[in-house]
Design a protein that fits this description.
By secondary structure, the chain is of the alpha+beta class. It is built from 3 helices and 6 strands; from the N terminus they run αβββαβαββ.
């Protein structure tokens, strides 16, 4: 029987081993080159150089996944979030990516992403309990359409 071991602290080596298995299976299925590339657009404190906000994500195959977008409270309402999304979109277009996708919670910023041309393609109700998790995409190879979006 195969042993399954629980860990609440998987190492980078653990994650790398799983990613290698998936890469090999994808290649065997004819998925084409993965073109994996992590990316970050960071806001740094001018005095300390510490990261105080920004956008991180990863390009894989032909889409950019926006993993995190955070703007410090002192910079909100000044267009910084819009600038971060625009920089990420420009970067994705320069690399010929098809689109961008992300997720956010109802108490996060779903209206912000809609205002920037993202279309909702899914949701998980009661995640977290009493709220909702939204999934958005924005195609970069065609005009964005809101048809078929979730409310």
């Amino acid at each position: 029987m195969t042993e399954i071991r629980l860990t609440l602290t998987p190492s980078q080596a653990d994650s790398d081993a799983l990613a290698e298995i998936i890469r090999n299976a994808n290649a065997a299925a004819g998925s084409g080159p993965e073109r994996y590339q992590p990316v970050g657009f960071l806001i740094t404190d001018q005095e300390s150089g510490a990261t105080i906000g920004g956008l991180t994500g990863q390009a894989m195959f032909d889409w950019l996944f926006v993993r995190l977008l955070a703007v410090p409270e002192s910079l909100r309402g000044q267009g910084v979030g819009s600038q971060l999304l625009a920089r990420a979109e420009d970067w994705a277009k320069e690399r010929g990516l098809t689109g961008m996708w992300l997720d956010t919670f109802a108490f996060g910023a779903p209206e912000f992403y809609k205002a920037h041309g993202f279309t909702q393609f899914g949701a998980i109700e009661d995640h977290p309990v009493g709220s909702r998790r939204h999934f958005f995409l924005k195609r970069l190879d065609a005009p964005s359409s809101n048809s078929g979006s979730f409310s």
